[in-house]
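User: Predict the complex with shikimate-3-phosphate.
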Amino acid sequence: MRTTLRGPSGPFTADVTVPGDKSLSHRALILAAMARGTSSVTGLGPGRDVDSTRSAIMSLGVEVQDGLVRSAGVDAWSDPGEPIDAGNSGTTLRLLAGALAGRPFRSTLVGDESLMRRPMGRLVGPLGALGARVETSDEATPPVSVGGDRLAGADVTIPIASAQVRSAVALAALQADGATTIDSPPGFRDHTERWLETLGRGSREEGHRFRVEPGPVPPADYAVPGDPSSAAYLLATAALAPGAEVVVRRISLNPGRTGFLDVLAAMGVDVAIEATGDVLGDPVGDVRVRGAKLEGVRIDGHLVARTLDEIPLLAVLAAAAEGDTVIADATELRVKESDRVETTVAMLRALGGEAEETPDGFVVAGGFLKPGTVDSEGDHRIALAAAVAATVAGQVEIEGFDASAVSWPGFVEELEAVWSS
Ligand code: S3P
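Assistant: Here is the predicted structure with shikimate-3-phosphate placed in the model:
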């Protein structure tokens, strides 16, 4: 499917909300499915990835209907008797691998062509520390099989700042004999940790170590806020257009998600953040961005984990900025829904931008973008970032735009509404 965007015809001002957060939607569904009783889960993200988690928990015998999740508890999950299909969603596969590692039956998790190529070896050691046998293909990719093992609490140190791996260990640890501690480098989104703390099943320790107390999670009221990774596309279109202003209301402000806003500010953009509350201990608020002349920046170290999903979008901003932008320490980009070093560089070049791959990231020479055709390579974040590029490039055609439905079906209509407001 090819989609054409033509960019705004003048300055715009918009005050909007965005679909529910994808990361929190997966966690709300899984934690509600693990609880015994009825949880309220509202504001779920509308994308295909969240559908994958919903279908997966339903295949385990959990009821999901009209904003309610009814479960007899994780101990009552039934063996679906066939592989669980996580579709394009790494979060579905990795988080459920952790939750299912504590079940008495063995489960197998698979996904679409992209997910079947993604690294799962990172689950083996951390879940193995609790006594879980995690089997993968010889290439350490899916299918992933877990379950049938008695789990014991352990002190687990994860070498990468992956929220998915930390969460997988935490969900397994709820079903272990004895407490578990989980440590990793910083920068990860700590949604799971914050919710487990509020639900009485965990506590923060020194540094980034988190302690999980095994036992049941109670049913809860999960009012999922807007997705800051989705908001980023609308905030970025304002940042690219001097004179424009966009406000996005009630998005997650988890510190692992706000790296994008820090980078915007470092590029010279006027960013105002107002915290308005929290959902079970995870902060939410409103963000306003005003367009400005952009300057190149350097994104490296722990900032990479805090901006990871927004890097293709930041690359578009970098291409319209003055000076070079360097993305370093970002090899994780190579194992996302596509090799995002390669696909981001290809996107910019297709629009007349100058970008070069480096071993651990890429460098963008600021300047301008012009009309062109971008191939999404099946990656939703490339499709969405390329659409935003039309703000400055004029006409942009995107091949394979349907990939965007993984996180945001209906994005083009929202973007065009912002441009014409
Ligand atoms: C996610 C964690 C991040 C992020 C992904 C969603 C999550 O992945 O890139 O889109 O919801 O836990 P990693 O855990 O691989 O860093």
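Residues 380-393 form the longest helix (14 residues).
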